[in-house]
Amino acid sequence: MSVEDSTKDVVRLVDVRKDYGETAALDGVSLGIRAGEAVAVMGPSGCGKSTLLNMIAGLDRPTSGSVVVHGEDVGGLSEKGLALYRRRRIGMVFQFFNLIDDLSALDNVALSAQLTGTPARQARRRALELLDELGIAGRRNAYPARLSGGERQRVAVARALMNRPALLLADEPTGALDSRSGEQVMDLLLDLNQIGQTLLMVTHDERLAQRCAGRIVEMSDGRVAAEHTLERTA
Ligand code: ADP
Ligand code: MG
After folding, report:
1. How far is residue 15's CA from residue 31's CA, in Å, rounded to a whole number?
2. Using an 8 Å Cβ cutoff, are 132 and 100 in contact?
3. Is the CA virtual torsion 203, 207, 210, 213 positive or negative?
4. Is ligand 1 within 6 A of the CB of residue 23?
5. Distances (CA, A) of 191 to 66, 142, 162, 187, 198
6. How would you class 103 by CB atoms within 10 Å of its CB: exposed for 0-12, middle for 13-18, buried for 19 or more?
7. What does the pLDDT look like over 67-120, one tens digit per residue?
8. Which ligand 1 atom is the nearest neighbour of the CA of 202?
9. Which residues contact 212 (CB under 8 A, 6 or more apart)?
């Protein structure tokens, strides 16, 4: 790939290594993701998928190698710089939703914009718009305990989109859902990608990956073992 092409990458990892004590969670991963792509990471438990996402999310730093996202060298940021990077550039969705139990759906979504300094009223207005786009505005006043798994994940996706992230990361977003809700969440991610959202997700479900991703990256023992470009089936 030419230098010109690689500057258009939203994500560029070069020879990234992450050691946890004796364990090499990532053992030399190089990967580029272009704006507008949807990429699914697959591979057995423990092969380094979450570590890969966490490096890109700025939740942890590589032992060596470089992680550049949207032109920022994530490994070189200070703690404060990393916190800003996470809030402004990245949206992240987790398997178990990670919503705040004592905030309503609307407030869970609005909070992430308030943390970046958006006034509360404006944050709530945008949160409501997003809940509406994601088809759950009717549940805005419900607390997480009263939401179904699929509804919780849609709230979590809305929260992840609040700050218009350059990159949406999803770590097994359907892993805790029944197959129907899982399909709905994947369809939602697919819709977002089709309107231009760059997406990197981890999933165990080959069928959902094929439906939603344009490329599958297969990992094994901390390395990229294979990559396939797909014709989407959706
Ligand atoms: P996956 O998401 O593919 O299941 P992970 O990225 O979670 O894999 O883990 C990769 C390897 O790194 C595993 O051997 C795991 O035990 C280890 N690991 C991950 N995070 C940590 C951590 N914070 N401390 C120690 N070991 C870790
Ligand atoms: Mg994992």
Report:
1. 9
2. no
3. negative
4. yes
5. 31, 25, 16, 6, 11
6. middle
7. 999 989 998 999 999 999 998 899 999 999 999 999 999 999 999 888 888 899
8. 2
9. 38, 40, 186, 187, 189, 190, 193, 199, 201, 232, 234
Q: What is the DSSP letter of 103?
A: S
- Tokens 């859902």 belong to 177
Residue whose structure tokens are 């699929």: 150
Q: Pull the structure tokens for residue 229.
A: 């470009």
Distances (CA, A) of 125 to 70, 120, 140: 27, 9, 12
Contact (Cβ atoms closer than 8 angstroms) between residue 141 and residue 110: no
Q: Rounded to whole angstroms, how far apart are CA atoms 39 and 194?
A: 13
Pocket test residue of 16, 19, 20 for ligand 1, highest count of atoms within 8 A of CB? 20
Phi, psi of 151 (to 5 degrees): -65, -40
- d(CA 138, CA 230) in angstroms, rounded, equals 36
Tens-place pLDDT, residues 196-226: 999 999 999 998 899 889 999 999 999 999 9
44 within ligand 1 shell (Cβ under 6 A): no
Residues 6+ apart with CB under 8 A from 84: none
